[in-house]
Design a protein that fits this description.
This protein is mainly beta. It is built from 1 helix and 11 strands, in the order βββββββββββα.
């Protein structure tokens, strides 16, 4: 069996990583088989096991979890050709013996219909004298943007 992980990049580009060992460990540490130097990736995030004709993935108690087709991995989970594996901000496609031939990003789920919010409770002043100093805090720029990952992902080229 010839198994690969194909990293999906923004704009449709992708990069292929061959799974040559019976067990491949993915994580941030230098001794991982596939090193992903991002702060949202655990030191030893997950492992992929090959035995003959089957692939299994196991989360190694990572902080953010490992997902196959958007379902969180608990214990050993089977992985088939065409499955999407998400680790932190990265999405890979599992390719086995060249299948699937065409690598495409996962389809986005339609946005959920918003539920009617319950009426907001009346505002009260905090008892300890704190004011609303943080009410206008904007954390929207705090997430890692995918474009900024390209320089970090260059380390993956050496695998």
């Amino acid at each position: 069996m010839n198994a690969d992980l194909v990293l999906l990049r923004k704009g449709g580009a992708h990069k292929t990583f061959s799974l040559r060992n019976a067990v491949t460990v993915l994580g941030r540490r230098h001794d991982c088989d596939l090193r992903i130097p991002l702060p949202t990736i655990s030191r030893r995030h997950c492992e992929i096991q090959q035995n003959g004709e089957a692939l299994k993935i196991r989360d190694l108690d990572s902080t953010c979890g490992t997902f196959v087709n958007e379902k969180r991995v608990n214990g050993d989970s089977p992985v088939k050709a065409g499955d999407y594996i998400r680790i932190g901000p990265l999405t890979f496609v599992c390719q086995i013996d060249g299948k699937p031939e065409k690598i495409v990003p996962p389809k986005k789920a339609p946005p959920a219909q918003p539920k009617k919010a319950p009426p907001a409770p009346a505002k009260s002043k905090p008892a300890d004298g704190l004011d609303d100093s943080f009410a206008d805090l904007d954390a929207s720029g705090s997430a890692i943007e995918f474009e900024e990952l390209d320089s970090d992902l260059e380390d993956l080229d050496n695998v």
